[in-house]
Amino acid sequence: MTHGRTVIRGGLVITAADELHADVLIEGERVVALAATGSDAAQAWQADRVVDATDCYVIPGGVDAHTHMELPFGGTFASDTFETGTRAAAFGGTTTIVDFAVQSVGHSLREGLDAWHEKAQGNCAVDYGFHMIMSDVTEDSLKEMDLLVEEGVTSFKNFIGSRDQESSSPVTV
């Protein structure tokens, strides 16, 4: 989706380092500039849309780096779907989730990641990425890891323990 230019004027902008009364210039989906509210630089900005944030906080969206949408575990499934879970996230100010994609035993990491992309595609209210749960560690799956990292998979998780144990200890790589 193409977004034009948006200016958010008059709010108290909260960054990782500061709080400042500033206007925010957004092009497309990216913040490209901050300038003091009322400054010549801020006043010169032209935009398709202007948002009045007077008496409001302007904060970046949050990232939830550990979610479980539609995750099968222990004979059950997580109650949230990508649709319901990301709608709730958006209402709470979370703009990105990192969910867990699962490799099925006997299948490749790629097949697991593709299955999770299929579940999420078109059903998310926010941006998303994936960690990868490795359920079948083989020479082939170990070789696949580099390819998935190049595509943005941020970490890999493997449960150590007997397959018939009720619980195992997770190891994140």
TrEMBL record:
Source domain of life: Bacteria
Residue ranges annotated for the Amidohydrolase-related domain, each copy included: 57-112
Cofactor(s), by name: Zn(2+)
CC per GO annotation: cytosol
Gene Ontology molecular function: hydrolase activity, acting on carbon-nitrogen (but not peptide) bonds, in cyclic amides
Pfam families: Amidohydro_1
Gene3D superfamilies per UniProt: Metal-dependent hydrolases, Urease, subunit C, domain 1
PANTHER family: COLLAPSIN RESPONSE MEDIATOR PROTEIN (PTHR11647:SF1), HYDRANTOINASE/DIHYDROPYRIMIDINASE FAMILY MEMBER (PTHR11647)
Protein's name in the database: Dihydropyrimidinase
Organism: Streptacidiphilus jiangxiensis
